[in-house]
């Protein structure tokens, strides 16, 4: 089966940055499965996997704009520590879900200075060129429900 018309695609991948450092990998674990065409993975990788078949192997370098986007300095803000009610110890590197104008977003604590906390709403990989070594492991037709919901169903989705 060829990867066309919104199938469920399962891949093994290894992700590296420009310096060649491994950032993530599915090797030794379950393959990553996604609904192709539904925007479930970064656009550059999804585009590169179009028209592939089971067994295909590819190495693709994706520019920041087609990965997690360019860094946006407007996403970095200083807020009051009061915004983190119920959190006794706020530390650099902690991540929180926040409401943004475009829906829920993850923010990362970049600095804590007294009652001021610097948060960054950029994805941690924003602004980075990424390279994926990928092998297509399986391609199957999506179910009608998966197509309606815009994602694959299985043990981790909460509704099969």
Number of domains: 2
Largest sheet: 5 strands, antiparallel
Strand content: 35-45%
> How far apart are the termini?
24 Å
One letter per element, helices H and strands E, the order comes to EEEHEEEEEEH
Beta-strand segment tally: 9
Helix content: under 10%
> What CATH first level of the largest domain would be assigned?
Alpha Beta
| Oligomeric category | single chain
**Cα-based radius of gyration, to the nearest Å:** 19 Å
Task: Provide a descriptive summary of the structure in words.
The chain is mostly beta strands and 160 residues long. It has 2 domains: 8-68 and 126-149, Roll (Chitinase A, domain 3), CATH 3.10.50.40; 73-120, Thrombin, subunit H (Beta Barrel), CATH 2.40.10.330. Helices cover 8% and strands 38% of the residues. The chain has 2 helices and 9 strands. A hairpin with a 2-residue loop joins strand 7 (103-113) and strand 8. It starts with 7 loop residues before the first strand and ends in an 11-residue tail after the last helix. The model has no long low-confidence stretch (mean pLDDT 91).
């Amino acid at each position: 089966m060829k990867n066309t018309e919104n199938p469920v695609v399962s891949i093994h991948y290894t992700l590296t940055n420009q310096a060649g450092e491994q950032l993530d990998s599915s090797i030794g674990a379950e393959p990553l499965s996604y609904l192709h065409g539904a925007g479930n993975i970064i656009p550059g990788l999804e585009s590169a996997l179009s028209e592939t078949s089971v067994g295909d192997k590819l190495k693709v370098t994706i520019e920041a704009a087609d990965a997690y986007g360019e860094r946006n300095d407007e996403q970095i803000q200083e807020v009051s520590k009061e915004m983190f009610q119920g959190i006794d110890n706020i530390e650099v590197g902690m991540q929180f879900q926040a409401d943004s104008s475009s829906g829920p977003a993850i923010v990362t604590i970049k600095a804590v200075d007294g009652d001021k906390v610097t948060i960054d709403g950029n994805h941690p990989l924003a602004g980075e060129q990424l390279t994926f070594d990928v092998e297509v492991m399986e391609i199957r037709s999506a179910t009608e429900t998966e197509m309606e919901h815009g994602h694959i169903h299985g043990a981790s989705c909460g509704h099969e």
